[in-house]
Structure to design on (461 residues):
């Protein structure tokens, strides 16, 4: 039966590839930002650790940086995730046939359909999270120092992908506390534990070094993201977060799990899967209650949660699994046909019309410099204008609080004296010391921005 699943997911992937090739949509701002980082490799960036930029740099070196090529990057990573997921299922004592079906079904869930079309730090976090979980299970039954070294290296790479890997460390500590076999494997192999810690620190050292030299910028941004200084207790955000998790897994999967949940048993595998999912969801749920939370903040938890649900549902027969898979594939088909036809659904507003807007700007400014105040617009314009000779700057007064990486890498100097064009507000460049005239040119009302974009020419006297 697994052949039907495999053929169906291959067909969905082919549709995804065709959609990427023919769509008129552009990169989302964060995707363009990661591409821009990959052009200037560093040991860290303001808002994220560096691993995605490193991987993306290698990808563009081999395959170029066209829209289609960049959209193939997440698909290639998910191809590797599929095999890693399969190995994890085997370590969890699934049969080979069940492991294949579980892995293919994971590729069909809405979260994977969306994620496999977007360049994001979650891609590499999920990959190294799955690999680290598999290695942890091997450590539990083997005293090989290689596994301890590999575990430290993989967990370190997960941290270099996204700091949300801290959740893995938390879940690992909970597992050590509640599972005698895991605790015994560590207690009887102190050398292995030392090797694990050394490997973890070695992999993390480059980013630690970068943060030391940049005022712990990335960690400060991560702390700011929690926004706990602006607590606003509410029940709407937690409800929205929980609904988003159900949608990302697939509503039929969730309902099927509820239907068969009476036969749930707390064996080691289920206990492990609970430990690597529920604490993460609980933490993000509390964050959503206190302030807010994005749907992808608990993305790693969906790995264990999906396997947990699949394991219990599959025990009751294949019918529910087939229904879940078919429903999720239909969601994927709808998504990729919408992308293929460049649908005007509101959910695509932020990636529609960017190329047309940039073409109009380029015709006006020629080869002159341009200053862009918004981070997302700065990123997308940098990508769309990548083959031009224009310098693109970000307004930033030296000594001010840094709020994005481009204020570090491409700041508009206070002493700037060459004429340029501005997209933003006149107040953004009020710190310039050289006398200038500012000429209002146009106001753009575009899909991809929540506010109208004002366009100016700045001429120095």
């Amino acid at each position: 039966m697994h052949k039907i699943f495999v053929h169906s997911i291959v067909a969905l992937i082919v549709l995804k590839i065709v959609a990427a090739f023919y769509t008129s949509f552009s990169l989302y701002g964060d995707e363009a930002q990661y591409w821009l980082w990959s052009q200037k490799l560093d040991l860290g960036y303001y808002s994220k650790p560096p691993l995605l930029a490193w991987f993306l740099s290698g990808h563009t070196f081999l395959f170029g940086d066209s829209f289609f090529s960049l959209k193939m990057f997440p698909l290639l990573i998910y191809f590797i995730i599929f095999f890693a997921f399969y190995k994890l299922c085997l370590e969890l004592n699934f049969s080979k046939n069940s492991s294949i079906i579980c892995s293919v079904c994971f590729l069909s869930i809405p979260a994977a359909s969306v994620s496999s079309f977007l360049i994001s730090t979650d891609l590499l976090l999920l990959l190294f999270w799955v690999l680290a979980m598999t290695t942890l299970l091997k450590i539990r039954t083997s005293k090989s120092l290689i596994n301890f070294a590999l575990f430290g290296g993989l967990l370190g790479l997960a941290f270099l992908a996204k700091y949300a890997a801290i959740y893995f460390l938390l879940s690992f500590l909970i597992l050590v506390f509640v599972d005698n076999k895991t605790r015994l494997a560590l207690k009887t192999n102190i050398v292995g534990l030392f090797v694990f810690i050394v490997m973890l620190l070695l992999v993390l050292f480059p980013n630690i070094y970068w943060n030391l030299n940049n005022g712990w910028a990335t960690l400060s941004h991560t702390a700011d993201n929690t926004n706990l200084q602006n607590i606003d207790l509410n029940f709407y955000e937690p409800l929205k977060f929980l609904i988003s998790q159900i949608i990302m897994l697939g509503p039929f999967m969730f309902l099927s799990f509820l239907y068969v949940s009476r036969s749930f048993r707390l064996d080691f595998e289920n206990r492990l899967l609970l430990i690597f999912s529920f604490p993460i969801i609980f933490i993000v749920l509390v964050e959503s209650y206190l302030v807010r939370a994005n749907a992808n903040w608990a993305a790693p938890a969906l790995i264990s949660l999906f396997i947990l649900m699949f394991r219990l549902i599959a025990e009751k027969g294949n019918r529910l699994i087939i229904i879940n898979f078919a429903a999720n594939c239909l969601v994927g088909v709808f998504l990729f046909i919408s992308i293929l036809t460049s649908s005007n659904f509101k959910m695509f507003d932020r990636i529609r019309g960017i190329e047309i807007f940039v073409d109009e700007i380029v015709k006006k400014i020629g080869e002159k410099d341009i200053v862009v105040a918004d981070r997302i617009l700065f990123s997308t314009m940098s990508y769309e204008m990548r083959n031009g000779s224009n310098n693109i700057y970000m307004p930033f007064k030296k000594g001010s609080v840094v709020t994005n990486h481009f204020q570090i890498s491409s700041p508009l100097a206070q002493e700037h004296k060459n004429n340029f064009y501005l997209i933003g507000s006149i107040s953004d460049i009020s710190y310039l010391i050289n006398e200038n005239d500012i000429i209002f040119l146009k106001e753009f009302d575009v899909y991809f921005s929540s506010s109208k974009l004002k366009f100016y020419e700045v001429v120095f006297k």
About this structure: The mean pLDDT is 92. The chain has 21 helices and six strands. The two ends are 75 Å apart (CA to CA). The longest strand covers residues 436-444.
